[in-house]
Amino acid sequence: MKANVCARPDLDEADYKELIPKTSLRFMGQNAKYAYIAMKNAVEHSGLKPEEYEENPRVAGILGQGGTSIPDIVETVTAVNSGAKRWKNKVGPFRVTRSMGSTVSAVLSTAFKLQGPSFSISSACSTGAHCIGTGFEQILLGKSEMAFCGAGELFCFVIICDGLYGVVLYWIGLLPSYIPSHTITFRHVCCNECLIILY
């Protein structure tokens, strides 16, 4: 059975600039932007006050991503390969955090001032579920009193559909059998990933 649904958050650059402080935004790839907004909303919905989780070594950040920010990697490689005299200006130091495999945990733990255990898990579509389970275990084992858990994922249909990887995903029925002219939009959630706070 082929999937016939394609979804992504209905957010644009103006939304990101409004919802994410500039000091954090410059370090974020698309996946971290989605996760930041989800985490911000989770904190607001929980009723937690900043003093309950900020700078507390007993608050964990188990935050993952199934993949990294491919557009940032492509832009970096393109700039380097161009051989242009000022290619370093096009790349900049912020590309490191945008393209590393632990972007979400690094950027969100810093932005929300989490000082407890902080690490990323990457397990494709089950990343969010594994982060939540691991956060639960951190609390169960007495290593943390609270855990921010979940994942953010990049929506990049061009990358997914390009090459053998995309052919295999399509063949086993995990990609849409057509490209819809419109999409169903989810606010604050991308793919099947989520973000919750356990305490």
Through-space gap between termini: 39 Å
> What is the domain tally?
1
Provide the spatial order of strands within the biggest beta sheet: 3-2-4-6
Q: Quick one: CATH superfamily?
A: Thiolase/Chalcone synthase
How confident overall, as mean pLDDT?
Answer: 76
CATH top level is Alpha Beta
The main pleated sheet reads as:
4 strands, mixed
N-to-C series of helices and strands: EHHHHEHHHHEHEHHEE
Strand coverage percent: 5-15%
Helix-and-strand structural type: alpha/beta
Computed CA radius of gyration, to the nearest angstrom: 18 Å
Low-pLDDT residue spans: 157-172, 177-194
How many strands? 6
Give the fraction of residues assigned to helices. 40-55%
CATH architecture: 3-Layer(aba) Sandwich
Provide a brief overview of the structure:
About 45% of the residues lie in helices and about 10% in strands.
List the helices and strands and how they pair.
Blueprint: E1 7-8, H1 13-19, H2 22-25, H3 30-46, H4 50-53, E2 59-64, H5 70-82, H6 87-91, H7 94-99, H8 103-111, E3 118-119, H9 127-140, E4 146-151, H10 157-161, H11 163-171, E5 184-185, E6 195-198
Parallel strand pairs: 1-5, 2-3, 2-4
Antiparallel strand pairs: 4-6
Task: Give me some keywords for this one.
199 residues, alpha/beta, 4-stranded mixed beta sheet, two-stranded parallel ribbon
Provide an overview of this structure:
The structure is a single chain. The protein contains eleven helices and six strands. The chain has 199 residues and is α/β, with parallel strands linked by helices. It has one domain: 3-Layer(aba) Sandwich (Peroxisomal Thiolase, Chain A, domain 1). It has a four-stranded mixed sheet, with helices on both faces. It has a two-stranded parallel ribbon with strand order 1-5. α3 crosses α8. 30% of the residues are buried.
